[in-house]
Design goal:
154 residues; mainly alpha; 67% helix
Length: 154
Amino acid sequence: MSALPGFLVTKEEEELTTEERRKLERKLKKERKKKEKQLMREAGISTKKVEPKKQSGSELALAYLTSWSENPEEWKFQKTRQTWLLLHMYDKEKVPGKYFTILLDYLQGLQGGARDITVQKAEAFMKEFDGSDAEDPNLLEKCERIRQVLQLLS
């Protein structure tokens, strides 16, 4: 009959079935862990596990773009990252200038439906902004980006 180290085996425990013994061992282990946590809390030591911060969609997309330009042999196509980039490429807050130049190079290889839709959306944006004569610097920056994309893909 084997007992857990540090525990005395009583006459009743010796008569337990294997399943009952396993349940008892689990219960004792759980109680021991609970006591350890309580002691840790009393000592002021945190018992919570720190989870790593997850990257946002923009961080992942910009890392994808950087990987494409700096490490093409290990780069893998990811539709969700490409979609995010195509949706946000005109926003200089989400795609800063240094990434936009890389994105223009990336767009040269754009094929099929993604290329057609990107051109259609860019043309629609351009028509929308041609109608307005606002001199908002953000709007002017967006128009310049649209013009560059149209020039590249048309």
